[in-house]
Design a protein that fits this description.
five-stranded mixed sheet, single chain, alpha/beta
């Protein structure tokens, strides 16, 4: 079974998919859409194409652990995604993943448009890596 990590965004949603052993991130991409239904349809196609057995959606908690409006949007998105795909969808704390993604890209000299097109996929990879490490314990 493969697991998909999702970093949901208003304009771009980062996607990371594990290898079959669920030990590492195997591939990444970005779904570009400001339309939630289109983003869900595109992600559902990736789920089917890659034989994904579980989806992990990043949950943006505040640094004190509370949840704000963005967390509620992500929960709603995860529910719609599970309904559309029939695949179990779980939430995973994504605090600081976008900051870490920007730091990684800066360290590798990704700037401007190149960074904008990549940061969401890197954040999805970090979400998935965290979840895979948790499962491995």
């Amino acid at each position: 079974m493969k697991i998909m990590g999702v970093d949901y965004g208003d304009a771009r949603t980062g996607i990371a998919i594990s290898d079959l052993l669920c030990s590492i991130v195997g591939s990444t991409t970005v779904v570009k859409s400001r339309n939630t239904e289109k983003a869900i349809a595109d992600i559902a196609a990736l789920v089917k194409e890659n034989d994904v057995g579980q989806i992990v959606v990043g949950l943006p908690r505040n640094m004190d652990g509370t949840e704000g409006a963005r967390a509620e949007l992500c929960r709603e998105f995860a529910g719609k995604l599970e309904e559309a795909t029939g695949v179990e969808t779980v939430m995973w704390d994504e605090r600081r993943t976008t900051v870490e993604a920007h730091n990684i890209l800066s360290a590798h000299n990704y700037h401007g448009q190149k960074r904008k097109n990549t940061v969401d996929a890197v954040a999805a990879s970090l979400i998935l890596e965290g979840y895979l490490a948790f499962r491995g314990r």
